[in-house]
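Quick one:
INPUT:
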C-alpha cells in the first residue's frame, strides 16, 4: 500500500561515500561510529605552507576503480564522485540502463571544482610553456564535469547540473534533486557532493583567512567541534552520492529505503562574505523552512547532525540557533571532528551519515570534545556513540556568502 505522500516524497535507496576514512560507505560509517581522533595526516604537497596537514582519502586507487584511461581524463573531484556514485547505484539495486534514461537526473554540489587540475596545469604553463598544457584542462577543471561524468557512466539523460553554494553545496544539491522528483520531472536522481582541493593555493587561502586549525603538532586533535579549545577547521576531500527516488517508484520495485528526505529549506544571511550572522538569523530561516516543508514541529526532532566546523564563530552561532529553535535538546553531533571539513561535499557526507543514523538507531559521537565550550549549551554526543530511537533528524549546512541549507530526514 502506498503512503499518503508517496507521490511527492523522496527516499534514499542508495548511498556511496569516499571520505578521509577511506573508500566505501561501510568504512566511513565504522570510523564515524568510533569517534576518536581526526582522520588528518600530513600531506607532502602542502610542505612549506602555513598548514601542512589535511583529511585526505587513503587507499583510493583511481586506476583500479575506473581504469587507466578514464582516471587520466578526470580530475580527482570527478574521480571521487564517480566512485561514490557507482557504490550508491549498486546499493540502490536500480537497473538504470534498463529504464528510461530521460527520467534519471544528476544533481551534484561542489564549491570549487577541479582545483588540483587548475593548480597543476598553471605550474605547467609557467614552467614549461603553453604547448605543454593538457588539452583536457577545461573538461577536467570545470565544476559541472563531475555530474556530467556520472551521467555518462549511468546513462542518466535527465536534468544534469552542479550547485555551488560553498560549504552548503552538497545539501543544496540534495534539496534540488528532491524538487526534481516532487515536480514529476524525474523518477530517480543521483545526487550528493564532491570536493578535492587539498592543494597549496586553496589551503593557504583558508589559512590566511584564519579559518584553519593551527595544531600542526597534533593533527589528530585538530578538528574539535564545540570544544572550548577549538581553533579552526581541517580541510578535507571526499564525496558522497545518494540515489533518490520518488517513494512510489521505489516501492514499486521493492527497493530498500535508508531514509526519507521529508524537508528542505534554504536561505541567505545577506550579512558577510565569510562570517556567519552572530545569531544565525539567516540559518534559522532555512531551518524553519525545512521543518515546515516536512510538516514537522521542533519538538518532533530527535537529532541534529550539525554543520559544526570547529571554528569559534560558526559553532557558537549554530548553538545559539539550535537552542532558540529546539531548546537544549535534541542530541547533536558533528562528524567533522572525525572526517574534517570537505567543503562542498560536507553536506552530502553528513546527509548520508544522518540517513545511516536513522537506519541504525545510533548517533555517532563528536570527536575531540574534551571540554565543551560553556557558550554551546547543547546535548553534544561525545566520547562514544549513543543508541537512540531516532525518527526525525535535521542536517545543517552553512557556507561562505551566507549560504544556508537544511534537510529534514525521517525514518521510512
Amino acid at each position: 500500500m502506498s503512503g499518503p505522500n508517496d507521490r511527492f516524497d523522496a527516499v534514499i535507496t542508495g548511498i556511496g561515500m569516499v571520505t578521509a576514512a577511506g573508500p566505501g560507505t561501510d568504512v566511513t560509517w565504522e570510523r564515524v561510529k568510533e569517534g576518536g581522533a581526526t582522520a588528518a595526516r600530513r600531506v607532502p604537497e602542502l610542505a612549506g605552507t602555513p598548514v601542512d596537514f589535511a583529511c585526505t582519502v587513503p587507499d583510493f586507487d583511481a586506476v583500479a576503480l575506473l581504469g587507466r584511461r578514464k582516471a587520466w581524463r578526470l580530475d580527482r573531484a570527478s574521480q571521487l564522485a564517480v566512485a561514490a556514485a557507482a557504490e550508491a547505484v549498486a546499493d540502490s539495486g536500480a537497473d538504470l540502463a534498463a529504464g528510461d534514461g530521460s527520467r534519471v537526473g544528476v544533481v551534484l554540489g561542489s564549491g570549487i571544482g577541479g582545483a588540483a587540475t587548475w593548480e597543476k596545469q598553471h605550474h605547467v604553463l609557467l614552467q614549461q610553456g603553453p604547448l605543454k598544457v593538457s588539452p583536457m584542462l577545461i573538461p577536467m577543471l570545470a565544476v559541472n564535469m563531475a555530474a556530467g561524468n556520472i551521467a555518462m557512466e549511468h546513462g542518466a539523460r535527465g536534468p544534469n547540473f552542479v550547485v555551488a553554494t560553498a560549504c552548503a553545496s552538497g545539501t543544496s544539491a540534495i534539496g534540488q534533486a528532491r524538487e526534481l522528483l516532487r515536480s514529476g520531472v524525474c523518477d530517480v536522481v543521483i545526487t550528493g557532493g564532491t570536493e578535492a582541493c587539498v592543494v597549496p593555493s586553496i589551503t593557504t587561502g583558508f589559512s590566511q583567512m584564519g579559518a584553519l586549525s593551527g595544531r600542526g603538532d597534533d593533527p589528530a586533535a585538530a578538528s574539535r567541534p564545540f570544544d572550548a579549545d577549538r581553533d579552526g577547521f581541517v580541510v578535507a576531500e571526499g564525496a558522497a552520492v545518494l540515489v533518490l527516488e520518488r517513494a512510489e517508484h521505489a516501492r514499486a520495485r521493492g527497493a530498500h529505503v535508508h531514509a526519507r528526505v521529508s524537508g528542505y529549506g534554504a536561505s541567505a544571511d545577506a550579512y558577510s562574505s565569510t562570517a556567519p550572522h552572530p545569531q544565525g538569523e539567516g540559518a534559522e530561516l532555512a531551518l524553519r523552512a525545512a521543518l515546515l516543508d516536512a510538516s514537522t514541529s521542533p519538538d518532533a526532532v530527535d537529532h541534529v547532525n550539525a554543520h559544526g566546523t570547529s571554528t569559534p564563530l560558526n559553532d557558537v552561532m549554530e548553538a545559539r540557533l539550535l537552542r532558540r529553535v529546539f531548546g537544549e535538546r535534541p542530541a547533536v553531533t558533528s562528524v567533522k571532528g572525525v572526517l574534517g571539513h570537505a567543503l562542498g561535499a560536507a553536506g552530502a557526507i553528513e546527509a548520508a551519515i544522518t540517513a545511516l543514523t536513522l537506519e541504525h538507531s545510533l548517533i555517532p559521537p563528536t570527536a575531540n570534545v574534551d571540554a565543551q565550550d560553556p557558550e554551546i549549551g547543547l546535548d553534544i554526543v561525545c566520547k562514544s556513540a549513543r543508541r537512540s530511537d531516532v525518527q526525525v533528524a535535521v542536517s545543517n549546512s552553512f557556507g561562505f556568502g551566507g549560504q544556508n541549507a537544511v534537510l529534514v530526514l525521517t525514518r521510512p
